[in-house]
Every structure is written in structure tokens, then in C-alpha cells.
Amino acid sequence: MTKPPNPQRRSQKSRDAILTAALELCGEEGYGRMTIEGIAARAGVSKKTIYRWWPSKGAVVLEALHEAADTVAPHPDTGDFAADMRTQMATVIRFLSPPSHAPLTGLVADALRDPELAEQVRERLVRPRIEAFGQRMRRAQEQGQLHPDADLNVALDLFYGPLYHRLVLHLGLPEPAYLDTLIEHVIRALDPGRGGS
Amino acid sequence: MTKPPNPQRRSQKSRDAILTAALELCGEEGYGRMTIEGIAARAGVSKKTIYRWWPSKGAVVLEALHEAADTVAPHPDTGDFAADMRTQMATVIRFLSPPSHAPLTGLVADALRDPELAEQVRERLVRPRIEAFGQRMRRAQEQGQLHPDADLNVALDLFYGPLYHRLVLHLGLPEPAYLDTLIEHVIRALDPGRGGS
DNA sequence: TGTCAACGACACGCCACGTGTCGTCTCCTG
DNA sequence: CAGGAGACGACACGTGGCGTGTCGTTGACA
Fold it and tell me: Which residues of B touch A164 (CB under 8 A)?
């Protein structure tokens, strides 16, 4: 029906203006109130141009976040795993605050209703982060700061689960002191040395 | 401006029809595609009647879930805390999985963009569940199945965080075997007896 | 039995959606 | 250095759900 456009002829200027406008509007009026028409107006671009390259508002924000994400929330390695996790998770928390205006929050909300967007979010945004976490975790294991048998999935769930749990149930994101408590607990959970059956 | 209606004169029949229609449509066409007009048509009710008693689609679904929720996902007490948590969490997982997941995930998605709805969800749907979990947890502590110093918030985050984390990042909800592993880890995390600083 | 408000019905303006059209301008190609 | 394909901005259009307003009708308290 509608033949796909030719990426080689794409206007880089328009693309950048659209992604920038999307993130700005998200911060100003919130993801929910932002519209495709608003993005087009702000970017000085025709609506048609947006629809030519993205299927939905969520896809635009996803791409904008994807571009920004590489420099955001990296996993530091100072040699102290717990401290590094605290640093990284604090960055994630800042990224999700305030929830009503955070692009990522809006994207997560949209993805709950749009399976195709959900897949894109998982593969382009989430999966690379899991990979980065896995690498940092493995170094911690090599350095004896984390039990060598610790499982990646379990660690991921226990570290980051509380953040998203609190985000989506509106229980308030962790304060620094509480974040420390959480990390302490998780590291203990990952050490089966004691206690077990 | 618009004076609040008199609850005494409210038609119970219309109210029930609206809540029923909302849950039915949610399951049939999904939360996102469901509209207030659709609910009104299905319930044989005027749109005005819905807007008279609820501010939004989310509020309707919230009330419908609130009515259904009391009998759903209680915290059993067989005397085995880990087994009871497995039972209860498996029920929650069923509610967050197809085909029954639509109302709750849709509501969660809406609440991420509507602060007033978010507050209602937290106070009416989430808070009572936290309370129920707290009571079961306290019994486990009294019976020596959980460390007496275990913190309610930490326990809540570690038990349920992984579920919502996996839900919103589309990582797949836990299988039974993995759920067991998680619970094992969490109970260990909540026992500071070993290891500490 | 009377009264008054909630009800169903229906109509309205609004706004964002997603698409279509057209003339312009830019950038590959030959 | 032309020529032409096509991405672009502009603008107009039909659609559909939103939230409100109006108007008889109905049904539940007093």
C-alpha cells in the first residue's frame, strides 16, 4: 500500500528537531498530554513527516530515549560493587522522576497497551541495559564482591524490581537511605552460603 | 458549578450494568480500545450517567476491580510462609497474565498518566493488599518462619517488585520454578543473621 | 400521592487522529 | 551540470471519542 520511504533521502534536520521537540514537550506538559500535532508544530515540521517515519508517539519517544540512553545511567566500576549499584540505581531513579513527566514512564504506559511498541522497548531499550548490568555483575563476581553462583535474572529482579514496583503502584521511589538498605538485602540474598534448607 | 448528585437516588441497576460492561469490554477488545461510549452502549445506559458518577474510564474500571478484588488473591495461612507466598503470588501472576490481565494492566497504564487516578489506585486497590501482606508477614515472624527484624517495605519490594518489573518491561512473568527460587532468595535476604557488614 | 432528581435519548462543539493532495526544494544519478 | 525521483512543509479532510447541554420520562424517597 504505502511504500516505505527511502532512508537515504531522509532529512536529518527534521529528524533531530522531532526527537528534540518530543523530549522537550514531554518534560513540559507530560507524556500523556503531548500530541503528534504538538510535536510537529514545535519541531516546525509537517505531521506527515512524522507519520512517514514513526508509527506512533511512543515510537518517537522510544527513538529519542534510545539516542540519549547511551550516555545516561552507565554502570560505573570503581571496584566497589554495592557503591556502584547505588550510583547507577540513583541515576535510574532520577530518570524516572517525576513519574508524570518522565518520558520513560509514558513510554512504559503506552507499551502496556501496544504489543509492538512493547517489543521495541524491550529489545532496543531494556535488553542492552540488562546486558550492561550483567557485565558489571560478572566483574563483581570475579572480584569476590558477589557470590559466584548468583543468577543474573534473580539479581536483576531483586535490584530493579523494587524501582518499577514502586513506580507503577505509586508508592514513591526509594530515598537514598532506603536504596542502601535494599542493596544490602539483595547482595545478601544472592549469597546462598548461609541458611538454606 | 456542577452540583454533586445525590447518592441515595442512584440507580443500583445502572451502576451494576456499567461495571459489568466495563469488565466485559475490557476482556473482549482490550482496555485501550474500550471507550466510555462503548461501555454506555453495552450497559444500556446514557453516557451522561457514567460521567455523573465517574470522572474517567480508569475510575470505572478501578471501581469494578475494587468490587471483585475482595475475594481475589487472599493471603492463605497454612502455617508454611514460603508455600503460602508461592500460592498468593501465583494468583497475582495469573491476574497479570493473559487472558485476565487487561483490566489491571490497563488501569496501571492509565494511572501512570493521571495522578488523581494513581492516588485512587494506590489507596483503594494497593494499600489494602499491602495491609493484608503485612498481616501474613507478621504471623510468619511470630511463628519463627521469617526473621523478626524483617522490614515490611523491604519485604514487599523484594517479593512483588520482580513481578511488576517483569510486567512493565515485558520480560515475561515468572514460571513456578523460578518463583520458588525468588521466594527462597527473598526470605534469605530478610535474615540479617549472617554476613552483615 | 406528590415532587424532585436521576435517568435515557439525543445533539452539539471540540480536538487529535491518520490520510490525502499539491507544489517546492533537495539531493542522488547520469 | 542538468534531470528526475522523492522527501518535504502546508493544508484540507473525514472519523471518532470526548465531555457537556437539553429535554422529556421515570422512579424513589417523603
Answer: 161, 164-165, 168-169
